[in-house]
UniProtKB/TrEMBL annotation:
Residues 72-147 form the Bacterial Pleckstrin homology domain. The lineage of its organism: Eukaryota, Discoba, Euglenozoa, Euglenida, Spirocuta. It comes from Eutreptiella gymnastica. It comes from the Eukaryota. InterPro entries: PHb (IPR012544), PHb_sf (IPR037063). This is Bacterial Pleckstrin homology domain-containing protein. It holds the Pfam family bPH_1.
């Protein structure tokens, strides 16, 4: 936020007491505008990670070194969008993925409305953090080319 002392607001939820994707749908409609998030029965956000769905697992020795260097590889945005729409109710009806990058189990997605970072936590991968940054909130960006 741009309120002094409240640069961001962080809340935790009990697994069996609340549906974080319902909370997400309300916040996304307020922050991003436009139509709501499509909820499908059985789309709990659990199961195969996005990176595993588009990379086939992401647990090779090369992936280990990519993670250490934080070297992301571009992945097919259509595959990522298909996976997210089927398994995680996070994209809005009028939102589409333009670019997607993955390293290990983590994925960064550039949509028509925002940058979405999906961070799979822990060894089991059961906890996933979703960070949504609307383009309207970004004031600058930096990129670094790959080494030679």
């Amino acid at each position: 936020t741009n309120m002094p002392g409240y640069g961001y607001i962080k809340k935790g939820f009990y697994k069996s007491k609340s549906d974080i994707f319902d909370v997400y749908a309300v916040l996304a409609s307020k922050v991003l505008g436009g139509p709501g998030v499509e909820r499908r029965p059985g789309s709990s956000g659990e199961g195969k990670t996005v990176a595993a769905a588009v990379q086939g697992g992401g647990n090779t020795a090369a992936d280990f070194f990519h993670r250490i260097g934080n070297d992301m590889a571009q992945v097919d945005p259509k595959q990522v969008e298909t996976h997210l729409r089927r398994s995680v109710p996070i994209l809005q009806h009028d939102e589409h993925i333009e670019l997607a990058f993955a390293v290990g189990r983590d994925v960064t997605v550039l949509t028509t409305k925002r940058m979405l970072m999906i961070d799979v936590k822990g060894w089991s991968g059961k906890r996933v953090a979703y960070l949504s940054l609307p383009y309207t909130a970004m004031r600058a960006f930096a990129l670094r080319s790959a080494g030679g």
